[in-house]
Amino acid sequence: MSSLFTYFFLGVSLAAPIGPVKATLLNKGIKDGFFHAWFFGLGAIATDILYMLMVYFGVAQFIDSPFMKTFLWSFGFFVLMYTGIENLLTLHTISMDAKYRKTVRLRQSFLSGLLMAFLNPLTILFG
């Protein structure tokens, strides 16, 4: 019974941290509404399914090579540092104007979720 709790807490600790995909999902829901956030989530789920199929067919052996690990870690570091610094520099420049509302299609929300999850280094490493 104690090993069951250990695996349960391990699963919760891996699922609990909010990464860039979940943060963008929350932002999409706040700005564009429920359906856009839902389609963004469907795009992220489609990416997860694609990664599961790739692991099933043996692509994980390629990612386990030391060169690919170093490349993915470096790429992830630079992408996350760039995103963090850009967000900190533009922290006080975001404004919401009620008169100006950009229309976003649901297809665009799905594709942005698909691409964001597909290019997320954390998803690649933990996939």
Attribute tags:
mainly alpha; 77% helix; globular
Q: If you had to describe this structure to a student in words, what would you say it looks like?
A:
- With 127 residues, the chain is mainly α.
- It has one domain (17-126).
- It has helices spanning 2-15, 20-32, 34-56, 60-63, 66-89, 106-119, 121-126.
- Helix 3 packs across helix 6.
- The two termini are 28 Å apart.
What is shown here, in short?
Helices cover about 75% and strands about 0% of the residues. The chain has helices at about 1-15, 20-30, 35-55, 60-65, 65-90, 105-120, 120-125. Helix 2 runs antiparallel to helix 3 (about 35-55), helix 2 packs antiparallel against helix 6 (about 105-120) and helix 3 packs across helix 6 (about 105-120).
